[in-house]
Amino acid sequence: MNKAYLLTGGNLGDRAGNLAMASAYIQQYCGTIVQKSCLYETAAWGLQDQPDFYNQAILLETDLTAPNLMEILLRIEYKMGRTRTVKMGPRIIDIDMLFYNTAIMETATLIIPHPRMQERRFVLMPLAEIAPQYVHPVFHKTIVQLLEACKDELNVYKIEQ
After folding, report:
1. pLDDT tens digit string along 57-94?
2. From 94, 120, 121, 152, active-site residue
3. Catalytic residue among 14, 84, 96, 121, which?
4. Which residue among 9, 76, 80, 116 is least packed, with the fewest CB closer than 10 Å?
5. Selected catalytic residue, list 91, 120, 121, 152
6. d(CA 160, CA 35)
7. Is 94 a catalytic residue?
8. For residue range 2-44, what is the model confidence (pLDDT) as tens digits?
9. 7,8-dihydro-6-hydroxymethylpterin-pyrophosphokinase domain: from which residue to which, for each copy (predicted)?
């Protein structure tokens, strides 16, 4: 059984409801969700003139290969109404694959580990909640160590649930 760490996020509509719907689709089509972080809220990273995001980290056990999993995740985004008109723009849902086992791979459509996750507190904080001691296969540091070294100054708030 393969283990994939995912990050769901969105800043349009019912943010919490959209993340819950994405989790339900992931569970239905991709495998078994073993663990989920709390929801976290943060200002938009990159293109800043847009609503705040909710994000959640997910640990998924799956029989799918990494490319097949990514293909299904993109289909889930499409099914939920995701459009890709503005890079880093507002979106109803975004599903990123952060890690797949300890794989290091790069194809035309997929880079694992996610290439910029170590620069983003909104990724590292929810991930540290569910996988604090997971070792990044490129940087050879735990998620907690990456979070401590992260220079991103955006505030990330844990949503009480």
Report:
1. 999 999 999 999 999 999 999 999 767 666 666 788 99
2. 94
3. 96
4. 116
5. 91
6. 17
7. yes
8. 999 999 999 999 999 999 999 999 999 999 999 999 999 998 8
9. 87-98
